[in-house]
Backbone:
C-alpha cells in the first residue's frame, strides 16, 4: 500500500501541514506561495494511484481538496471584485493569474465536445460557476458563440459578482444567465439543456459527487451531453476523481487526461435512454513509445516525453 514511503506523498503532506496551519486562505503572500508549490508538486504526470493510499493519507487528501476549494473560492472572489471595478471587465480578464489555464481548458473541452457532438449545444447549463465564471465566459466568447449559458451556483453573492462581469457586454449579457440554486433542487429545467458542464468542486467528496451525477442522470434529457471535470495521478490531491463507474445512467464516451498546465481531466458522457448501470471493458494501456507523433493522442495513459499541448487519455471508450 502506497503511503509515507513515497517521496511525493511526503512532500504533499508537508505542504498540507503548512496550508492547514494558515490563519486564513484568502489571497496573501504565504497563501499564494504554498498553493503555487502544491500545484507545482502535483502537476507533473505521475502514475500514483490515490486509491491505494493508506487511510491517513486518504483523510489528508480529502481535507486538502476542501482547502483547495476554499482557497480557490477566495481567489476568484478577490479577482472578480477587481475586474468588476472596470467599466469593461471582460477587457481585463488576463489580470487573473490562471486565465491562460482557463483558455487551454476551454479549448480542450470545446475540442472534445466537437468531436463527440457534431451538433454543438444551443443551450448549456454550467453547474458551479462561482464568482468568476471564466469557463462559461471563454466558451461563450470564443467557441460556442451562439450558445446560451445558464450558470448555476448556490451562493447569491457569487452570482451577483459574476453577473456584473458580463453586464457591460451586449452579447454575453444576453446569452449568459445566472441562477442561485442548489442543483439538487433543479429538476424539470435540466431537460431543456443540450449539455451540462459539472465544475470540479461541485461535490468535493465521492459520495456528494455521485449524488449530483445521479440527480443529473435522473433529470437530464436522454441523449444529451455531460461534461465532468475530474483529476488523475497526483493531481487527484487537488480535485476529486470521477470514475466511469460513478456515471450510472450515462454512456461514457472518453476520458481525457492532459499532461500540460491544464490540471483537470475531462470526462464526456451521454445520457442513456434508461438509468441502467453501464459496464465498460477495461482496455489495455498503450505505451507512449509505440504511438506515432501527434498533437492529439487518442489512447494513452501518460506521455511524460511530450508535455506540451498533447493530451493523455486513459481510456477511449467509443
Residues:
Amino acid at each position: 500500500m502506497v503511503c509515507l514511503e513515497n517521496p511525493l506523498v511526503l512532500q504533499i503532506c508537508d505542504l498540507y501541514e503548512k496550508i492547514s496551519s494558515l490563519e486564513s486562505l484568502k489571497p496573501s503572500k504565504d497563501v499564494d506561495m504554498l498553493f503555487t508549490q502544491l500545484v507545482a508538486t502535483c502537476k507533473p504526470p505521475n502514475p500514483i494511484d490515490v486509491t491505494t493510499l493508506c487511510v491517513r493519507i486518504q483523510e489528508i487528501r480529502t481535507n486538502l481538496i476542501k482547502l483547495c476549494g476554499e482557497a480557490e473560492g477566495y481567489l476568484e472572489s478577490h479577482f472578480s471584485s477587481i475586474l468588476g471595478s472596470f467599466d469593461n471587465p471582460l477587457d481585463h480578464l488576463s489580470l487573473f493569474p490562471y486565465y491562460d489555464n482557463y483558455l487551454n481548458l476551454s479549448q480542450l473541452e470545446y475540442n472534445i465536445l466537437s468531436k463527440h457532438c457534431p451538433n454543438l449545444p444551443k443551450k448549456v447549463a454550467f453547474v458551479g460557476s462561482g464568482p468568476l465564471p471564466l469557463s462559461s465566459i471563454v466558451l461563450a466568447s470564443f467557441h460556442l458563440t451562439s450558445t446560451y449559458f445558464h450558470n448555476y451556483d448556490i451562493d447569491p453573492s457569487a452570482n451577483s459578482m459574476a453577473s456584473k462581469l458580463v453586464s457591460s457586454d451586449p452579447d454575453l449579457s444576453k446569452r449568459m444567465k445566472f441562477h442561485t440554486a442548489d442543483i439538487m433542487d433543479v429538476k424539470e429545467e435540466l431537460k431543456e439543456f443540450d449539455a451540462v458542464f459539472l465544475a470540479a468542486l461541485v461535490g468535493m467528496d465521492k459520495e456528494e459527487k455521485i449524488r449530483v451525477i445521479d440527480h443529473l442522470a435522473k433529470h437530464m434529457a436522454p441523449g444529451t451531453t455531460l461534461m465532468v471535470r475530474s483529476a488523475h495521478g497526483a493531481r487527484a490531491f487537488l480535485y476529486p476523481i470521477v470514475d466511469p463507474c460513478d456515471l450510472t445512467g450515462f454512456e461514457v464516451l472518453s476520458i481525457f487526461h492532459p499532461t500540460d498546465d491544464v490540471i483537470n481531466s475531462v470526462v464526456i458522457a451521454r445520457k442513456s435512454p434508461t438509468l441502467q448501470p453501464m459496464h465498460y471493458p477495461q482496455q489495455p494501456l498503450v505505451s507512449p513509445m509505440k504511438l506515432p507523433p501527434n498533437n492529439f493522442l487518442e489512447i494513452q495513459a501518460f506521455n511524460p516525453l511530450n508535455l506540451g499541448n498533447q493530451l493523455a487519455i486513459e481510456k477511449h471508450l467509443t
Summary: Residues 7-94 form one domain.
